[in-house]
Amino acid sequence: MDRRHFLQSASLVAASAKGRAESIRMPYLCAAGEHDELSPLTSTERLLQAIKGPKRFVVYQDARHATAGVPSTNLGPYLPALVADWLGARFKGESFPSERWFVDATGRVSKTPI
Questions:
Q1: Global pTM?
Q2: Which residues contact 89 (CB under 8 A, 6 or more apart)?
Q3: Dihedral over alpha carbons 114, 42, 21, 84 (to 10 degrees)
Q4: Which residues of 47-85 are buried (b: 16+ CB within 10 A; e: fewer)?
Q5: Are the beta carbons of 72 and 107 closer than 8 angstroms?
């Protein structure tokens, strides 16, 4: 399958989620590569804007959909541990601010509200 097919598929998924994302009220975590070829950041950001519950969006600089093999994923938060810690905090009932985390090539995390 070529890139065009994947982008069309991503658009179809986004269209099918339209009107449904607004009903999500529970905590939501999303991690992506800056150059995600399967779910472009603009599509993911639109989805996250529609979600009413608290959310965290973690973007790894220079990573693709697999979020591996680039400095940001090697030096920044280890994604499986990040997900496990996030889930553990949710089970404990801990709240969190809605934020976009950008993990740069040095592993540094810049947090901005969303």
A1: 0.83
A2: 96
A3: -70
A4: bbeebeebbbbbbbbebbeebeebbbbeebbebeebeee
A5: yes
The C-alpha atoms of residue 72 and residue 104 are separated, in whole angstroms, by 5
- What tokens does 95 get? 């709240």
Phi, psi torsion values for 68, nearest 5 degrees? -150, 160
Length of the chain: 114
Question: Which residues are bridge partners to 39 per DSSP?
Answer: none
**pLDDT tens-place string over residues 61-89:** 999 999 999 999 999 999 999 999 999 99
